[in-house]
Design a protein that fits this description.
23% strand, 26% helix, three-stranded antiparallel β-sheet, eight-stranded mixed β-sheet, alpha/beta
Length: 329
């Protein structure tokens, strides 16, 4: 027996990568470590990003529009996307970054102090620290608040399941409908993401989907069609879909920004395929939510700001009184 084979390793069960860690080793996500035979989240209670955001920034357009949400992020991510816009905090561990201590009880107290009643776990990949997210989500629920996941959802079902009863909404970033793209651009795989989205749908979360269109990488009409049909057939045609504009970042700085014509074509394609609420993100253009029944403008936005909101109480169209899909005050 070699010395290497005698070292006990523990497999991290959180995501499909299943890192086998020797004592003291940290996983590929930079946020989970073998601590004397037990896998722990090294980012637990350590927040490297904390801000008050408009909920439209997540982006969530059909979940209490026009309200603010407290956004927090921890270091680390189990994906290694070539285009990552938050690489400075996602591609390193908590020991490499300034952070503030924030316990679940402290988070609930912060909500009371700010008067905000929703928390987004965002900026990096919150699901590499599911223990911390679960404790925080329970504390937020107990304080009467709402919990939102902003996630790439490359996660095992057993990791996600305990969280879902405490989560109210999620925006899932589906990077592509091609496994090859996930492997070459993200160091991950497609099917666990789709399975996680199905799991969220079955748990009755409010779901919105984002797809960042990268020129020449994942923006073909055929790939867009496959995503549109997945959303329509498995999540429902009322599910909001956001096509987001790529800007050169991280290891893809040589690529140009997504042409606005590509975004417009993607939106028109999704509407023609039967999706009812399709939006374009990362542009200066205004986006309007319309009634799926009569077409009346209901909510108009410019950037992340809501310019007007005509919804009746409970989220109904003031013209035909059809309920708008989503969650509203």
């Amino acid at each position: 027996m070699t010395l290497e084979s005698a070292v006990p390793r523990v497999v991290c069960p959180v995501c499909p990568r299943h890192c086998a860690l020797a004592p003291g080793d940290t996983g590929s996500c930079h946020a989970r470590r073998n601590d004397n035979g037990r896998i722990v989240a090294t980012s637990r209670n350590k927040v490297c990003a904390l801000a008050l955001d408009p909920i439209e920034k997540k982006p969530l357009y059909h979940f209490y529009p026009g309200t603010d949400i407290l956004s927090l992020g921890m270091a680390g991510c189990n994906l290694h996307c070539l285009n990552c816009q938050n690489a400075s905090i996602s591609q390193c561990g908590p020991d490499a970054l300034p952070s503030r201590s924030l316990t679940p009880g402290g988070l609930a107290a912060l909500l009371r102090q700010t008067g905000v009643n929703a928390v987004a776990y965002t900026y990096t990949e919150p699901l590499v620290a599911p223990e911390y997210v679960l404790d925080c989500a329970r504390a937020v629920c107990a304080a009467g608040g709402r919990n939102v996941l902003v996630t790439a959802a490359w996660v095992e079902p057993e990791t996600l399941a305990p969280l879902l009863p405490c989560i109210d909404a999620a925006n899932v970033d589906i990077k592509s409908m091609r496994d090859a793209f996930y492997r070459t651009n993200c160091g991950a795989s497609l099917m666990p993401v789709l399975d996680a989205v199905r799991q969220m749908r079955a748990a009755n979360l409010h779901l919105e989907i984002t797809n960042l269109l990268i020129p020449g990488r994942n923006d073909s009409p055929e790939e867009r069609r496959d995503l549109i049909r997945f959303v329509r057939e498995e999540l429902g045609p009322e599910t909001p879909l956001h096509f987001s504009r790529f800007f050169p970042r991280h290891r893809l700085e040589s690529l140009p920004p997504t042409p606005e014509s590509t975004l417009t074509a993607a939106k028109e394609q999704a509407l023609a395929e039967g999706l009812r609420h399709v939006y374009i993100g990362n542009t200066v253009h205004a986006e309007t939510t319309r009634c799926a029944s009569c077409g009346a403008p209901l909510i108009r936005r410019k950037g992340f700001a809501v310019v007007f909101n005509r919804l009746e109480p409970g989220g109904r169209c003031p013209d035909c009184h059809t309920p708008l899909h989503g969650r509203f005050a």
